[in-house]
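in:
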């Protein structure tokens, strides 16, 4: 029996990778936040960065100005009135998202930030613990780069991650609950764009019905609360906030994109060329997802492919949006639903997914955005994994030995 050393333990290498990431961007951002310098914490821009969006939006909605959020000029005026500048922010969320953040406007900024981030992180950890079947995952997620980035940026990553993994990992055992999660996921609809495709292929009618009912109730409640005008502005506003973000020429913004569109823009391609690049990756993502289902892969492989394909398919993914891929990567890395953990090459890839925010940030410093490549390689690796699992499922079961001797009449 080989002698055990810590270097043989995959937990050591994962811990090492996570800690290396914490000494990168998160440590620098935390220092800016703590010392009240830089963009993450100063007199005009409180710690928590992007949470300014949710706090200002909730206050505007409480005051009856929900429609103003969807006009970039009006929204810029709201931010400037409160903080002296708009920081280049735009409101990108559908009106029913306001229902989830509406109470935040009742509290001072700091308390609202603590309540929102604490509640969404707790939801993410509780759902992850339920799916994992133990508390070990909570410790890993607490030290994962996505957690530090989510807190420092004051973003929705924990909420989206909780709803995403809760929906796709529970639809075998708890289809109604999974449908509720997916219905709530429509508050950030781009992350659910491939889910209907899978639900229809697998004929998960209970999940589909529950998700549609949940989303319908949320939309109806938002119409009752804010009227029809915010929805009209969301769909037909002549000033498109999303275009302001996607078509921006800011290198710093493009450098934190993990989608093919953002990577192409970072490399200097025009929006039209970047759209073609994104289309190519999106088609590959759909093809990989379809192949995984045709090959009769195991449930954990199919879910991992759905998550990876989604992050390759959509054109707007930022470095803090990795809560769902991080959980999926950890599940595969530790071999939660199979006897053996993956081999060396696949394990390195999974650690790369869990630390992608750091890897992409480091490689963009030398002009190479690796985010899309990592997700594309993961999709390709999962196709290989699905093929192997399909071959194993197709093998005939060994026949039971026939007992020798004369039968008794």
């Amino acid at each position: 029996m080989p002698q055990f050393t810590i270097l043989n333990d995959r937990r050591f290498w994962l811990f090492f990778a996570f800690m290396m990431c914490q000494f990168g961007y998160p440590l620098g951002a935390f220092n800016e936040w703590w010392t009240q310098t830089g963009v993450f914490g100063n007199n005009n821009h409180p710690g928590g960065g992007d949470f300014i969006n949710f706090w200002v939006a909730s206050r505007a909605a409480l005051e009856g100005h929900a429609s103003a959020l969807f006009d970039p000029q009006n929204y810029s005026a709201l931010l400037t009135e409160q903080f002296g500048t708009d920081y280049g922010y735009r409101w990108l969320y559908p009106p029913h998202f306001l229902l989830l953040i509406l109470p935040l406007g009742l509290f001072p900024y700091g308390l609202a930030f603590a309540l929102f981030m604490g509640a969404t992180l707790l939801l993410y950890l509780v759902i992850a613990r339920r799916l994992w079947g133990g508390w070990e995952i909570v410790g890993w997620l607490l030290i994962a780069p996505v957690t530090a980035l989510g807190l420092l940026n004051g973003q929705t990553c924990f909420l989206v991650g909780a709803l995403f993994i809760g929906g796709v990992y529970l639809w075998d055992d708890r289809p109604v609950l999974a449908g509720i999660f997916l219905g709530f996921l429509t508050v950030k609809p781009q992350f659910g764009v491939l889910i209907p495709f899978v639900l229809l292929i697998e004929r998960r009618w209970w999940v589909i019905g529950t998700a549609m009912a949940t989303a319908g109730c949320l939309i109806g409640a938002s119409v009752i609360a804010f009227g029809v005008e915010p929805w009209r502005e969301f769909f037909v506003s002549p000033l498109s906030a999303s275009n302001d973000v996607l078509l921006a020429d800011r290198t710093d913004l493009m450098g934190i994109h993990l989608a093919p569109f953002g990577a192409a823009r970072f490399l200097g391609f025009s929006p039209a060329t970047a759209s073609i690049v994104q289309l190519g990756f999106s088609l590959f993502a759909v093809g990989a997802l379809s192949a995984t289902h045709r090959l009769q892969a195991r449930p954990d492989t199919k879910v991992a492919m759905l998550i990876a394909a989604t992050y390759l398919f959509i054109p707007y993914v930022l470095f803090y949006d990795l809560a769902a891929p991080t959980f999926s990567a950890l599940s595969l890395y530790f071999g939660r639903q199979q006897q053996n953990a993956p081999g060396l090459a696949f394990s390195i890839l999974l650690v790369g997914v869990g630390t992608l925010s750091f890897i992409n940030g480091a490689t963009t410093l030398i002009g190479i955005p690796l985010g899309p490549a990592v997700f594309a390689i993961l999709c390709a690796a999962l196709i290989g994994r699905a093929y192997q699992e399909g071959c194993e499922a197709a093998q005939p079961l060994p026949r039971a030995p026939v007992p020798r001797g004369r039968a008794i009449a």
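note: DSSP finds 22 helices and no strands in the chain.
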